[in-house]
Design a protein that fits this description.
single chain, alpha/beta, three-stranded antiparallel beta sheet, disordered N terminus
């Protein structure tokens, strides 16, 4: 056991497990498909609850056999629309995770929900199953925009769902989408004030992103989605969001995540601090630590094919690692620089000391020297700041974070001279 622990540490795994362990459970079904969504979702038709319960439990047992002894910091039911799940499945999955690993009163258990009256009516049963945090896909408090976004609820339903959730669970999040067609800063500020007044503990505030393969993507390609904001308006909307939310007691701890102090989403923090998480269900990604290093994992996307794989082999997941030291450092930067707290310099050094085919000291010195020079340049330009043992994006840096990360991350082979 000591040799295995040392091997994990040598490959960067120890520094990953120190950031926590989460379990993501993907429910791939929705009542309808939103025109902006590119997640792994399918229209919900006939679903056999017993079949899905047994498949989830088998997948959990498979992961637990590879990842023994973990304490679970967070369980997150995402989708799709997990509030369409039979509460008995949720109860069984939570019990299965608790049987496989250590779950206690500190474990955050989140479930995503749509705010229709039918789904809100299940909140009490979800809470009885162990869910202690509900994330409600409000998306807008304007009925006309909800219709354009393909949502099945009204603003009144959304307000009622938030009130219902607060009666049953100690933590509530609401999702909102801004930068919608023809939306002004003034109109968004008014809507955001209404959302803040609902009294949720956490707000996930996302800019509308037009993604290839979605209905909105197809419409935009054909010039049939007018009124989308340009870069200047997107920046103004982002800055207004942060200013108003912070002034209302919800500072941004991550680019799109705002919370009352102490109400930050544990699952988010495991992910953005580059911790370990197991992905359960079709299309669920993960990042796990094995004896030879850190492995990203991915699951079969098609629900039927995933079920078949679980029935025949015990799991529909495959590993894609182990990751190289450069990849570990890059992934950590990409995740952690989204956080207001930023990246820990010592963790970067630790990731770069792994087995790279070069002497660890030589590899660390070469890559870390290049990284340090890039950091110095970005600090001088006002896009990064140093605070003791950390580096973090400034307000200006968060607006162009993709460009900042391109300067920091290792060049790919095609980029090298």
């Amino acid at each position: 056991m000591e040799a295995v622990a040392r091997d994990i540490s040598d490959h960067g795994g120890g520094i990953v497990t120190e950031a926590g362990f989460g379990v993501y459970v993907h429910w791939p079904f929705c009542r309808s498909l939103c025109p902006y969504c590119d997640f792994n979702v399918r229209l919900m038709r006939s679903v056999d609850p017993g079949l899905w319960r047994d498949a989830y439990l088998a997948d959990i047992r498979h992961h637990a056999s590879r990842l023994p002894g973990r304490r679970v910091d967070s369980i997150y039911f995402g989708g799709g629309t997990p509030s369409l799940m039979d509460p008995a499945i949720v109860d069984a999955v939570i019990a299965g995770i608790a049987a496989a690993w250590s779950v206690d009163s500190r474990t955050e258990i989140s479930l995503e929900a749509n705010p229709t009256s039918v789904e809100a009516g299940r909140f009490a049963e979800f809470a009885a199953a162990g869910v202690n945090r509900i994330s409600i896909g409000v998306q807008s408090l304007r009925d006309a925009d909800l219709k354009r976004l393909g949502r099945r609820h009204t603003a009144a339903m959304a307000r009622d769902a938030v009130d219902t959730a607060r009666k049953h669970v100690p933590a509530v999040n609401i999702d909102l989408i801004y930068a919608r067609p023809n939306q002004t800063v003034t109109a968004w500020e008014s809507e955001l004030r209404e959302a803040l007044a609902l009294g949720a503990d956490h707000l996930s505030l996302y800019q509308l992103t037009i993604k290839p393969g979605t209905r909105f993507g197809d419409l935009a390609d054909r010039g049939r989605l007018p009124g989308l904001p340009g870069e200047a308006l997107e920046a103004a909307l982002y800055e207004a969001t942060g200013t108003l939310a912070a002034a209302s007691g919800y500072p941004a701890y991550e680019i799109s995540s705002h919370a009352r102090p102490g109400s930050e989403c544990t699952h988010n923090l495991v992910y953005w601090r580059y911790g370990e998480f197991a992905g359960i269900g079709p299309g669920a990604d993960g990042r796990i630590v094995l004896s030879d290093g850190v492995h990203p994992t991915t699951a079969i996307r098609d629900p039927g094919h995933w079920l078949d794989a679980v029935r025949t082999t015990g799991s529909g997941t495959r590993s894609l690692g182990p990751l190289t030291p450069d990849s570990l450092a890059d992934e950590y930067l990409i995740a952690s620089l989204r956080l207001a707290e930023g990246s820990e310099i010592d963790r970067l050094r630790a990731f770069l000391c792994g087995d790279s085919g070069l002497h660890p000291e030589q590899h660390r010195d070469r890559r870390f020297g290049r990284l340090s020079r890039a950091v110095d340049e970005l600090v001088a330009a006002g896009f990064l700041e140093r605070g003791g043992p950390r580096i973090a994006a400034t307000a200006a840096g968060r607006l162009v974070l993709d460009s900042v990360l391109r300067e920091l991350c290792a060049p790919r082979p095609a980029d090298r001279p």
